[in-house]
Every structure is written in C-alpha cells, then in structure tokens.
UniProtKB/TrEMBL annotation:
PANTHER family: ABC TRANSPORTER I FAMILY MEMBER 6, CHLOROPLASTIC. It comes from Rhodanobacter glycinis. Keywords: ATP-binding, Nucleotide-binding. It comes from the Bacteria. Belongs to the ABC transporter superfamily. Ycf16 family. The keyword Acetylation does not apply. This is Fe-S cluster assembly ATPase SufC. CDD domains: ABC_FeS_Assembly. The gene is sufC. Residues 2-246 form the ABC transporter domain.
C-alpha cells in the first residue's frame, strides 16, 4: 500500500528526514517510535502534504501512485488520514458540521455524491454505536474546551467516519490518562481491518500494550535505524533510544 524510499525532506531549510525508507502493506499496524526531534511528526506531515515541508529526494508510492504529486485534498480523497499531535480548536464551528464538510470533500474528490445532513446524521449514529462513543462531543464546537482525552477520542471518531485506508496517528496517546488511552486503543482496534493500514507514531511503549503492532520501527535522526516486532518496543522502554541511535550514526 505504501512504499517510502530514501525520503529526504526539509523544514525551513533544515534537512529533517535523511533517507527514510519504509514499506507498509494493507492490514498492517506499524509503530514508529523515536526520540524527540527525530522527525516523526515531519514524516506524518510530509505524507499528508502539509504546507512548509519540502521533499528534496526520494519517493512515496501509495497504491501504485506517486503520493507526493497529489495535493493534500487529493491525498485525503485517496484515503490518507492524519490525526494531529496537537488537534486544532475551531471555536464556533459545530463538530458535526465540520466532520460532514471533511466527509463530503473526500466524497467529492472521489467523484461520489455528497450526503445531506439527514443522511450524514444516520451515518454518524451508526459510527457512534460501533465505536461506543457518546454523542455529547458532536454538539460542541470543534475541540473547543475539549480535554486531552476528548480531543483524541474525537480524532478516533473522525477516523471512523472518514474510513481511511492509511491512518497516520501522531502521538494519539500523549497526555492521556489510562482510561482515555484504553478508549483510544479500543477505537483503533475496532477500526483495524485487512484493507486498512496504520502508522502509529508514539513516543512511549504503553499504547502498544493495547494496540499490538505488527512492526515497530525506530526513527532516529531522520531515518529508520531499526525495525522489529513488538518486542523491540519493550527493549526500547528498557534501554532507551540512546544506544540505538548511537549505533547508527547518520551519513556525513
Ligand atoms: P518528532 O515528532 O520526532 O519529535 P519533529 O518532526 O516534530 O520531531 O521535528 C524534527 C525537527 O524538525 C526538530 O528539530 C524540529 O525543531 C524541526 N521542525 C519540525 N517542524 C518544524 C517547523 N514547522 N519549523 C521549524 N522547525 C521544525
Ligand atoms: Mg516531538
Ligand atoms: Mg512529533
């Protein structure tokens, strides 16, 4: 589904990704771990096509097409979803309204018919039931006054409605208490499917106790320096990143 080869990217003229390669197949959950400043969020932003991230070398192929050639909206329409590390608040904009706009933009991009508010409400109700989420968040403005846990739960709900093929979650676990973490994990697990892949960017091991990844990768200094199964995450928790990063110095 996703093949990243030798990706180099710059932010504000500074090279952050320095030859990153990664292959993700449908149905797989990949955890990306690594020290602060390694380039984890940059990877998510480059994949979603966020402004200000300049790719200087390498390729990203998604379902056989050149992902980097697509505008951000086209990537979303093609099923790429990025949940932000710091979700934005949009005061005064109703959450359901916002979600329908995103949903319909995606449908339009695929050449599909948009849903009217009644049809969308029906879909939202089904998703709430599947995800076991209360409808309380829907009536509020986007993320306004949401607690950390509510924001993350809302992201998982957005993901459930948008039904991405490739879901990128950037530190969806950060700042969550254990109950909220379990809820987020349960949401991700509910959405796992043979035709959907997840890139879970996380700083800590603990989310991976609840969402068991197929692969764990260590991103250090702009590259994947080590890959393994879930036992790699436990090893990192025990020994930290220092040893791993030091044994794989970046190319001069
Ligand atoms: P991580 O998510 O692994 O903690 P980031 O991808 O956020 O790392 O950041 C990697 C490096 O890129 C850091 O040194 C950070 O300061 C820098 N960086 C990221 N985004 C920006 C930006 N928008 N402007 C300037 N520097 C940035
Ligand atoms: Mg960080
Ligand atoms: Mg980050």
């Amino acid at each position: 589904m996703l093949k990243i080869e030798n990706l180099h990217a710059r932010v504000e003229g500074k090279e952050i990704l320095k030859g990153l390669s990664l292959t993700v197949n449908a149905g797989e959950v990949h955890a990306i771990m690594g020290p602060n400043g390694a380039g984890k969020s940059t990877l998510g932003n480059v994949l979603s096509g966020r402004d200000g991230y300049e790719v200087t070398a390498g390729t990203v192929t998604y379902n056989g097409i050149d992902l980097l050639a697509l505008a951000p909206e086209a990537r979303a329409a093609a099923g790429v979803f990025l949940a932000f590390q710091y979700p934005v608040e949009i005061p005064g904009v109703n959450n359901t309204y916002f979600l329908r706009a995103a949903f319909n933009a995606q449908r339009k991009g695929r050449g599909e018919k948009e849903l009217d508010s009644m049809q969308f409400l029906k879909l939202v109700r089904e998703k709430l039931k599947i995800m076991q989420i209360s409808d309380e968040l829907l009536h509020r403005a986007v993320n306004e006054g949401f607690s950390g846990g509510e924001k993350k739960r809302n992201e998982i709900f957005q993901m459930a409605v948008l039904e991405p093929q490739l879901a990128i979650l950037d530190e969806t676990d950060s700042g969550l208490d254990i109950d909220a973490l379990k809820q987020v994990a349960q949401g991700v697990n509910t959405l796992r499917s043979p035709d959907r892949a997840f890139l879970m960017i996380t700083h800590y091991q603990r989310l991976l106790d609840y969402v068991v990844p197929d692969f764990v990768h260590v991103l250090a200094d702009g590259r994947i320096v080590e890959s393994g199964d879930k036992s790699l995450a436990l090893k990192l928790e025990e020994h930290g990143y220092a040893g791993i990063a030091a044994s794989h110095p970046a190319d001069p």
